Amino acid sequence: xxxxxxxxxxxxxxxxxxxxxxxxxxxxxxxxxxxxxxxxxxxxxxxxxxxxxxxxxxxxxxxxxxxxxxxxxxxxxxxxxxxxxxxxxxxxxxxxxxxxxxxxxxxxxxxxxxx
Length: 115
Known about the structure:
Elements: H1 8-12, H2 32-42, H3 44-52, H4 56-75, H5 81-114
């Protein structure tokens, strides 16, 4: 795949974008912020190594995961995506509690109607 313009990674790193650039498919020149964020957290060398170790069909998902983790870490340097996961778990617990309460109210109402 030939690149008429450098990918966001090569542009950021100020290097020529080779036709076999591992980063080009996942960090297009139209979204330089994506690479900048991932680079800030993981570093270019680590990103490249991680992607090269994966089969081609998993690389896009891995790049998306790195991007999500990096943006989460930038927003919340202490907890990163773990903070989001914790909030979601709390919401699940609250929803389950609400469901139990609602089911018991329905059962009570049904029992009252049968009397």
